[in-house]
Amino acid sequence: MNVKNWSRKKKILLGLISLIAITLVLYPPTVRSWMEKWGTTEIERNMTLPDDDFISNPKVVTNHAITIDAPPTEVWKWLVQVGGYRAGWYSLTWAENLFGMGIYNKYEIRPEWQNLELGPLCFNQIGDCWPVVDIEPGKYLVLHIDNRVDDSDWDSIFYASTGETVKLRMWKSFPDDDYLDLTSWILYIEELPDGKSRLISRMHKTWETEKPIQNFMFKLSGEEMHCLMDIEMLKQIKDCAEGNASKYTNTPLPEGGIN
User: Fold this and answer.
1) Which residues pair with 104 in a beta bridge?
2) Do the strands 140-146 and 132-136 form a parallel or antiparallel pair, or are they unpaired?
3) Which whole number is the average pLDDT over 212-220?
4) Which residues of 223-259 are buried (b: 16+ CB within 10 A; e: fewer)?
5) Fewer Cβ within 10 Å of end Cβ, the chain: N or C?
6) How far apart are CA 67 and CA 76, in angstroms?
């Protein structure tokens, strides 16, 4: 079975089936609770982070953290590079691409990726964006999803692997517009003594929809999917910041692309 040659719809279906199976069979409440607060202390879970008030009453809250044996300046070099047309998300590429999103990770520091501006940041290689709404270089960045935002005047970007120009668009969990989808993702670096750092990741998510399938999928993407990918991202950034990026292999885009 050659999954690489499947259409994006088939890959999405396979990804959904896989995640549903994991959720129903291998994900009891005790594991969920552990994953929602992985690596964090009670103090960290209760501390106020930038833009925490974007969602007043989130339905999903996750807090993850990891200690890195490197100063914040070194951690920031890797964190600031995130993005679909940049270094990717330092996570499970095979899982990301079950959904046909075209996310490819690069484990190297590039000068052209050391600047990150406010505005749409590509999440993947097909134009879906998580806008950067707040940033303090060396300290934190905040990304928001709000599917009510008018993205009609957003730019386009050239997708080198297909030779196509892709229109940037706000990330939407579903193609129709009869629901509310709000997400806040905060990535925060705290300086520790002895040249170490804590990298904290907090996500708030809420939604309004009357459709049971959509409710289930929002819950799945807000907790299970995010927890799995986010924890792996923290682990990989830790490795890279501590000088162990060589343990990972760059994943090239198909047929060229950004290499």
Assistant:
1) none
2) antiparallel
3) 69
4) bbbbbbbbbbbbebbbbbbeeebeebeebebeeeebe
5) N
6) 14
Burial class (CB in 10 A: 0-12, 13-18, 19+), 68: buried
Task: Specify the pairing of strand 169-170 against strand 128-129.
Answer: parallel
Higher per-residue confidence, 194 vs 99:
194
Q: What is the pLDDT of residues 65-120, one digit of tens each?
A: 999 999 999 999 999 999 988 898 998 776 666 655 667 889 999 999 999 999 99
Beta strand residue intervals within the chain, DSSP E:
60-68, 128-129, 132-136, 140-146, 156-159, 164-167, 169-170, 180-191, 197-208
Q: What share of the chain is helix, strand, coil (3-state, %, to 5)?
A: 35, 25, 40
User: What pTM did the predictor assign?
Assistant: 0.82
